[in-house]
Amino acid sequence: MATRRGGQQHIPRPQSYRPGRQPPWAALAPEQRRFTLAEVRERLADMPPAVEKGPHVAGSQAAAVLVPLYEADGETGVVLIKRPETMTSHRGEIAFPGGKFEAGIDTDLRAAALREAHEEVGLAPDDVEVVARLDGIGTVASRFTITPFVGFLAGLPVLTPNPREVVRILEVRLSELLDPDAYREERWDTQTADFGVHFYELEDETVWGATARILTSFLAHLVAGR
Predict the structure, then answer these.
(1) pTM value?
(2) Range of the domain at 38
(3) Pair 66, 151: CB distance under 8 Å
(4) CA 111, 221, 205: angle at the middle one, nearest 5?
(5) Where are the alpha helices (DSSP H) in the chain?
(6) Closest by Cα among 14, 8, 67 to 202
(7) Which residues touch 6 (CB under 8 Å, ≥6 apart)?
(8) pLDDT tens by residue, 50-97
(9) C-alpha to C-alpha distance for 115 and 222, rounded to whole angstroms
(10) How many CB atoms lie under 10 A from the CB of residue 74?
(11) What's the CATH code of the domain at 142?
(12) I need a surface site. Which of 26, 93, 148, 177 has the fewest CB within 10 A?
């Protein structure tokens, strides 16, 4: 009997949605979906300079997230968090540690990502090697312009969730995200646009929205050429 994938996240799916495209890793063999941290570093070295991909929303706030990567048993994994249902935005969603840029506190967006990761899961900034800045994205509903930073961890430290902002910490192998049974794209039609929405259905949670957009761009670059 197949294991049911996905969680209870609320997805505001329009009635007109339809299946999207296959990912660039759909045909990869299982061994091609596994990456060491050294292989990730090599691929990131070839990444073009980061740009903002939008959507560009008037009055949006600058924010930054950390994509924390670690290696376990020869495979790279990523740390994700689950937001409480009590949050004013992104309730119950799976996300990267991160939050708003605070003028007067953060010297730059990189500092904001590290500060938020420390506040949310207890990850000390000195334990993170920031190796890359990824393309920025905009969110329409919450009006954020999000800049992601990839951070390497020497090992997976003991992380402690801040209960006001995090109800669960997830440690997910990249190979699980690259599993053909985990990923799908849907095409959503609105009054102004037709766009792709990405989903990663884990064993008991669904990653979608801004986090899934960041992951899809990142993973697509990793597998290019494999």
Answers:
(1) 0.93
(2) 33-176
(3) yes
(4) 70
(5) 37-45, 109-121, 174-177, 209-223
(6) 8
(7) 201, 202, 204, 205, 206
(8) 988 766 777 789 999 999 999 999 999 999 999 998 776 667 899 999
(9) 27
(10) 9
(11) 3.90.79.10
(12) 26
